[in-house]
Design brief:
InterPro entries: Citrate_synth-like_lrg_a-sub, Citrate_synth-like_sm_a-sub, Citrate_synthase, Citrate_synthase_AS, Citrate_synthase_euk, Citrate_synthase_sf
Radius of gyration: 22 Å
Family: Belongs to the citrate synthase family.
CATH architecture of one domain: Orthogonal Bundle
Bound molecules: carboxymethyldethia coenzyme *A
Pfam families: Citrate_synt
Protein name: Citrate synthase
Structural class: mainly alpha
Keywords: Mitochondrion, Transferase, Transit peptide
Shape: globular
């Protein structure tokens, strides 16, 4: 049974009527129940342990990009170097078993992952459907953003366009407007949550519009369907709605790539910018520009570029020795092998493994020359990178395969791949933004030192 509620945060006079499944709690109501416990936990940590020492700061932390330095709170996930990511303690296989899928689908969907990240609870089927519906109802882009995006040059990188579009959406930020009118600190999170939901809801329409403008001569997209989940709508808006396998792949990819604790460049940027009380649109657009760097989110397009160049140079029937030689050629020319290595992980990335298992369950993917090359490279690259001796982690990360599967499915425009990552990472980065406001986390402001100041500290034996 459905009943209707009108969101009190409906922006710009638009009445957003959310269909609610009777007896089902909304995401906000669930979160409201969880917040007091976490606030109490933080209060206790502050009052009882503020001065407890949990580690040292070494010179290598300061000059080495703060690797390994435990210096920020991040509630939704923790990354273990050997086990990989866990979302509120759940591994990717746990999530695959427990989180609701789309009707008729098998893979995790963004809504169930977002619910888990935000509340720490597994949503029911009905809660997941209700959230899908709420997002679909909020998913249309305002006309001013459509016009802005349509006015950008198709030759501008899709990630630049995505960042611009997300920043422009802040025109309707309910947090910003409420802040201007003077709201209580304890209410920050409710307005932030409303903005985060609207932003997640609008990302598919924005990202798909960019895709159509850049690659399909601005062809019109179908309307958002109230009966589809977020990713179902995203593929439909891009023009791939009929491809059920691609949609299932993207559901999995977008869910498991949504959060990777807080220190990675995009998540950390969202947290840093959000800590100034910038609204979620501004915080997440900043994160997207961090994601656009080749050592981070752009790696998925780089992997494919590298693989295709290898395929072109080596032709058919590529042997392990051919790949070995090609890897050495890459390394000797001073380049990194894209898709391998990681700032924290020290084993094969479980996200890589989950995507490989998706391929293993589909004969047509196993027969794809691109996927076969990913598999063969995996058999050779860790040995070569170990012999090369530089990287601390010779194993593949998620990007070693993510773009190659998209390529097989006909989504061949690899400059677009990081945009899909950008749709995904919103799940984790925006979750933390809500929690940062609910917990009243302060403005981030670490101490920097010059090399002379560092030398002085060393001399003093500090
Ligand atoms: N190929 C060649 N050299 C590599 C390498 C790779 N795949 N990975 C690391 N190295 C090198 C580093 O460049 C560094 O060299 P220098 O000492 O000359 O600077 C050295 O090995 C040590 O690096 P590290 O401590 O093992 O790794 P970092 O934490 O510095 O970097 C990462 C991590 C991901 C940037 C790096 O492994 C890399 O550039 N990989 C390829 C790009 C890639 O796949 N990025 C996707 C990351 C996934 C994500 O964003 O989530």
């Amino acid at each position: 049974m459905l009943r209707s509620t009108v969101s009190r945060f409906a922006s710009r006079g638009t009445r957003v009527v959310t269909q609610r499944f009777a007896s089902t709690k909304t995401l906000k109501e669930t979160l409201q129940e969880v917040i007091p416990g976490k606030q109490e936990q933080l209060k206790q940590l502050k009052s009882e342990h503020s001065q407890t020492v949990i580690g040292d700061v070494k010179v290598e932390n300061i000059i080495g990009g703060m690797r390994g330095l435990k210096s920020m709170l991040w509630e939704s996930s923790v990354l273990d170097p050997n086990e990989g990511i866990r979302f509120h303690g759940l591994s990717i296989p746990d999530c695959q078993k427990q989180l609701p899928a789309a009707p008729g689908g098998k893979e995790i969907i963004a809504e169930s992952m977002f619910w888990l990240l935000l509340t720490g609870n597994i949503p029911t089927e009905a809660e997941t459907r209700q959230l899908s519906r709420e997002l679909a109802e909020k998913g249309d882009l305002p006309t001013y953003v459509e016009k802005l995006i349509d006015g950008l040059s198709p030759s501008m990188h899709p990630m630049t366009q995505l960042g611009i579009g997300v920043a422009a959406l802040n025109h309707d930020s309910v947090f910003q407007k409420a802040y201007e009118t003077g709201i209580k600190k304890s209410d920050y999170w409710t307005y932030t949550l409303e903005d985060c939901l609207t932003l997640i809801a609008r990302l598919p329409a924005l990202a798909a519009r960019i895709y159509r403008n850049v690659y399909k001569y601005g062809a019109a997209a179908p309307p958002i369907s109230k009966d589809l989940d977020l990713v179902g709508n995203y593929t439909a808006l891009m023009g791939y709605g009929a491809d059920k396998d691609l949609t299932e792949y993207l559901r999995l990819y977008i869910s498991i790539h949504g959060d990777h604790e807080g220190g990675n460049a995009s998540a950390h940027t969202a947290h840093l910018v959000g800590s100034t009380l910038a609204d979620p649109y501004l915080a997440y657009s900043a994160a997207l520009f961090a994601l656009a760097g080749p050592l981070h989110g752009l790696a998925n397009q780089e992997v494919l570029r590298w693989q295709l160049a290898m395929q072109k140079e080596l032709g058919d029937n590529i042997t392990h020795q051919d790949i070995k030689d090609y890897l050495w050629k890459t390394l000797k020319s001073g380049q990194v092998v894209p898709g391998y290595g990681h700032g924290v992980l020290r084993k094969s990335d479980p996200r890589f493994i989950a995507l490989q298992e998706f391929c293993d369950s589909r004969p047509e993917l196993l027969a794809s020359p691109t996927i076969q090359l990913v598999k063969k490279t995996y058999e050779v690259a860790p040995g070569v990178l170990t012999e090369h001796g530089k990287t601390k982690n010779p194993w593949p990360n998620v990007d070693a395969t993510s773009g190659c599967v998209l390529y097989h499915y006909g989504l061949t425009e690899f400059k677009y791949y990081t945009v899909i990552f950008g749709v995904s990472r919103a799940l984790g980065a925006l979750t933390q933004l809500v929690w940062a406001r609910a917990l009243g986390l302060p403005l981030e402001r670490p101490k920097s030192v010059s090399m002379d100041a560092l030398q002085d500290l060393i001399n003093k034996g500090a």
